[in-house]
Amino acid sequence: HRIHLANSIAGGLGNVVGLLSTYPLTVIKTRLQAQNKKKKKIEEKTGEKSEIDDTKNVDAKDDNNDVYDGPMDCLMKVVSRDGVLGMYSGISLKLVETYLWNSTFYMFFSVLKPHIDDIIKREHAEGRGYSAYLLNVAHGMIAGMGTQLCLFPMNVVNTRMVVLQRKKGKNEKNTGIVENYIRVIRDVYAEGGVSAFWRGIAAGLMLTINPGIMTMIRIRLTELCRANGYTGGGVHFWVGFVSKMMASTVTYPLVVARSQIIVSAETSEDNHTLNDRNTNVLVALLLSIIKNILHVPRTIMRVVEENGGLVALYAGFTPHLSQAALKEAIANTVRNKASALLLAILTSKRQQP
């Protein structure tokens, strides 16, 4: 139990540190993307190519009408106007969500690990060592699915909270976060009962292939480094970076497909199985997962056809990959160090008379 607790806490802390380290990149990316969208709006209205300074005329409410010439210029202007804390605006809710999500994932991961290791040993003994790769993938996927099933309602409520904040007008009374949470929970329940809190989870479960592949690559790379005498924080950093980069490269088209499936589900009148209060939730969820999996190839082909080739499946991939890989590299380093430290502390307390 101490091992599971240490891995769970370390998993949450590692990803929180990773988020804190890379969140300014998210702020810069978001502001630059917003500026580019404004520039395109001007070009669509005027029919002429817009200079970057013309974005000042689009929205007088936006961030004191700052215009950014690039990532470094954006960083300097945000820090000079709002201070260093300005780079962490709106991170509080994300920190809580990140910690809970990853501590739960690594609790599942740690509990499953002895059983997966026993199966791998038996497979090796019977001459089927190749199956270890599939078992490692299954290990990460099962942990991811367990986490999704436990915490997806939180994701639904948090998403609604963001939408609620955006819809609020200037003169609307600003209620507290607790009141908003209660309001959102009541609204979701009114739409479809308890099962409404898991609406859309089928598309999310598809993406558990990402932690599955990442787990397999991370374990294999770690074993390879140890076999060649490489240990320490630097190894954890690069193992985390490479494993996330490779896993995201393989699964990014699923992210695109998932977005399309969610949009289709929201606009379709016949895809509301989970909304029926009298429907068995587990049966409805299983049917929804199967339906979404069957939709994936067709959705990917539609994206390719409508957007002019395979390149469309990786639209926006570069900024996503660089940030996600760096975040996982930092998280993996902190996670391994924190897990060893916490385990040493918990073990020493147990041995005290």
**Subunit organisation of the chains:** single chain
Task: Report, as a whole number of angstroms, the end-to-end distance.
Answer: 20 Å
Provide the β-strand percentage band.
under 5%
In helices, the fraction of residues equals over 70%
Order of helices and strands: HHHHHHHHHH
Number of helices: 10
Largest sheet: none
Structural class: mainly alpha
Radius of gyration: 23 Å
Q: What sort of overall outline do the alpha carbons produce when their principal axes are compared?
A: globular
Low-confidence stretches: 50-63, 266-279
How many β strands by DSSP?
Answer: 0
The chain-level mean pLDDT equals 76
Question: Would you kindly provide a written description of the structure presented here, covering whatever features stand out?
Answer:
- This protein is an all-alpha fold and 353 residues long.
- 75% of the residues lie in helices and 0% in strands.
- The chain is built from ten helices and no strands.
- α1 packs across α3 (92-125).
